[in-house]
Every structure is written in structure tokens, then in C-alpha cells.
Design brief:
The protein has 1 helix and 12 strands. By secondary structure, it is mainly beta. The strands form 3 sheets. Strands 5, 7, 8, 10, 11 and 12 form a 6-stranded mixed beta sheet that branches. A 3-stranded antiparallel beta sheet has the order 2-1-3, with no helix packed on it. Strands 4-6-9 form a 3-stranded antiparallel beta sheet, with no helix packed on it. Strand 10 and strand 11 form a beta hairpin.
Length: 178
């Protein structure tokens, strides 16, 4: 059965390539097609295959200055660091709100932004801001790191993680000597 299907497809392919097609009906009433004429066969006119030619593309205009998203147009950052809180600093009674200040050298380029991680979790920050507030930050030891990313989210430069401590006074544990 499979070889019949293959033979039929091959014959269709040959007919599709033929420039002339002839049709005839045999004594049993079966219609046949061929690329060779036979006595009593009539020529079949085939339409040309439908084709499409797209219009030409408009000429590409070159820009005078490269776009900032191109890799070679990105500024070469010399560094990024967390200024506040300082490494090893203990913060007292911040009520869950941590003010963070970041320094980027030579400065944050348009389209680039900071990716901030607190204790391994990404923190949302305002676009383009180098000083912002993170909340909630509870008492205990924390690690903060910052990276500069481009429009595609590709990391360009990152800071060393800063470890700091938050102390929150409590009425249950007053700071009084015994």
C-alpha cells in the first residue's frame, strides 16, 4: 500500500514538471494523464503556477550616532558600590525602612538601571535612582549587593556584597544594665 502512495506522488511530481499534459479515457472509462501524446488523447492546458514577488525593501538609513543599546556604545563602568549602609554598620530603630545610597562610576547611563539584592532576593527600585528606600527590613544580619544592568537585563558591573546589621529596641528586652 505504501509503495502505491509513493508511486502516485512520484507520478504527480513528474506531471507537475511536464510542459505538456495529455488526457485520454481508456475502454473501461478510466481517465489517464500523460506527458506523451497518444491516439485519441486531448491536450490539457495548464495554468501557470501562482507566484508572488514582494516589493523591494526600503533602503536602510544609517544613523549618525550608534544607539545606546549596542554593546560597544555602552559606557565602561569603572565600578559600583554601596555607600550606605556601610559594611559592618549597625543600624538602630529604622522602623523597617532602609535608606540605600549607591555610587556608580562614571554615572548611570540612560536606559541602564540598578538591580538590587537584599539577602539574595531582588528588590524593586525606582528606575535611574541611586538613592532609594527598601522596606520592610527587619532586625538581624543582612547582605546587600547592587549591579548595573542594560536595557536587555545584561549585567555590566556589580558591587561587592555589604553585610550590615539592624537592631530594633524592644520593651521586652530593654537596654538597661542589671
Amino acid at each position: 500500500m505504501r509503495w502505491i502512495l509513493v508511486a502516485l506522488l512520484m507520478s504527480c511530481a513528474l506531471v507537475a514538471q511536464a510542459e505538456e499534459v495529455w488526457r485520454w479515457v481508456d475502454e473501461n472509462g478510466v481517465v489517464h494523464f500523460s506527458d506523451r501524446p497518444r491516439p485519441g488523447a486531448e491536450r490539457v492546458e495548464l495554468n501557470r503556477p501562482q507566484t508572488y514577488t514582494p516589493p523591494p525593501l526600503p533602503a536602510r538609513q544609517e544613523t549618525a550616532s550608534p544607539a545606546p543599546s549596542e554593546p560597544d556604545a555602552a559606557p565602561a563602568y569603572t565600578g559600583v558600590r554601596v555607600v550606605s549602609p556601610a559594611a559592618g554598620e549597625t543600624l538602630w530603630n529604622i522602623a523597617g525602612e532602609l535608606t540605600v545610597q549607591v555610587e556608580v562610576q562614571p554615572g548611570l547611563a540612560p536606559g541602564h538601571q540598578l538591580r538590587v539584592s537584599l539577602d539574595g532576593q531582588r528588590v524593586e527600585t525606582p528606575p535611574g535612582a541611586t538613592q532609594f528606600t527598601v522596606s520592610p527590613v527587619f532586625r538581624g544580619e543582612h547582605r546587600l549587593s547592587v549591579a548595573v544592568v542594560d536595557e536587555n537585563g545584561r549585567e555590566l558591573v556589580s558591587s561587592e556584597p555589604v553585610t550590615f546589621y539592624v537592631h530594633q529596641a524592644s520593651l521586652q528586652n530593654p537596654n538597661r544594665p542589671r
